[in-house]
Amino acid sequence: MFKYCSLYSGSSGNSFFVQSNTTSILVDAGVSLKKMCTAFDEKDIDGKKINAILVTHDHIDHTKSIAALSNKFDIPVYANKKTWEAIPDIANKIAESNKKVFNISDLFTIGDIEVFAFHIPHDAADPCGFNLYNSGKKISIATDLGYVSQDLLNHLKDSSSVLLEANYDTDVLKYSRYPYLLKQRISSNKGHLSNVSAAKAINYLYNYGLNSALLIHISKENNFPELAYETVKSETQNCKNLSVFVAPRDKPTNFFEVI
After folding, report:
1. Which of 21, 28, 94, 107 is the most buried (most CB within 10 A)?
2. Is residue 140 in some structural domain?
3. Confidence band for 146, pLDDT divided at 50, 70 and 90
4. What is the CATH number of the domain that holds 178?
């Protein structure tokens, strides 16, 4: 068994869950402890059996309850050095024994899941995505990234499943109520990923074994779930065996089995 789900996904908070036969990993915890526990109950997740919390970057919509979860369930939290340094108020609330440091581009193991962290372009201290390996299968998580480089694609290759940001539609962003400077930040190379960029990446990855994609971190103001989905489906219309799903902002998805 190797499966995953999104618990929450969007600018108001992000958290993803990956599980193998013997290991459970949470990636980010950007909503309140109460909301996290509500999602755990809905998905029948035992917080005491979570082996690790992986942190992609320091922004509050990814880190809000990592200390509370760690303390409540005695969960180790893994982040890189610069990310820890960027969240001192959160770090100081976590027991020293549960603060773990990884280096980006190092392979490390949590239970029976191998983890590889890779750089992503975003305006955070040292943001990263993750490859997760179990039983010869690979899940990749890449969110909050300004653009898709060839280096990023190389890290996502050979994934059975990807959780990939599809944050905004270019035209919707252009005419949204956001102030100009925020629009510039979102569409910059260190901002967020557009539907079109996500679609092109998924189409490329299909040629390297991809069979399912979950679109994550969809903007409430600058996108629509249906628009993100249709953009990706249009770009990947020749990818006959590809399944595409959209993560809602405020509730968990179903579990997806990695095949």
Report:
1. 28
2. yes
3. very high
4. 3.60.15.10
Map residue 16 onto helix, strand or coil. Answer: strand
Q: Tokens in use for 160?
A: 């059975």
**Residue 26, pLDDT score:** 98
Q: Assess if residue 197 is contained within a domain.
A: yes
Task: Determine how β-strand 212-216 pairs with β-strand 99-101.
Answer: unpaired
CA–CA distance, 217 with 7 (Å, rounded to integer): 11
The neighbouring-strand residues paired with 131 are 116, 140
**Residue 256 maps to a domain:** no
Contact partners, residue 13, CB within 8 Å, separation at least 6: 30, 31, 35, 61, 64
Pairing outcome for strands 161-165 and 212-216: parallel
Q: What is the mean pLDDT of residues 31-48?
A: 98
pLDDT for the residue 259: 85
180: left (phi over 0), alpha (psi -120 to 50) or beta: alpha
pLDDT at 62: 98
Domain that holds residue 246: 2-251
What does the pLDDT average to over 129-150? Answer: 98
| Entry pTM | 0.97
Q: Quick one: what percent of the chain has pLDDT higher than 70? A: 100
C-alpha distance from residue 132 to each of 12, 24, 74, 162, 194 (Å): 25, 11, 22, 10, 24
Q: At what angle do helices 66-73 and 33-43 cross, to 10 degrees?
A: 60
State which amino acid sits at residue 224. F
What average pLDDT does the segment 114-118 reach? 98
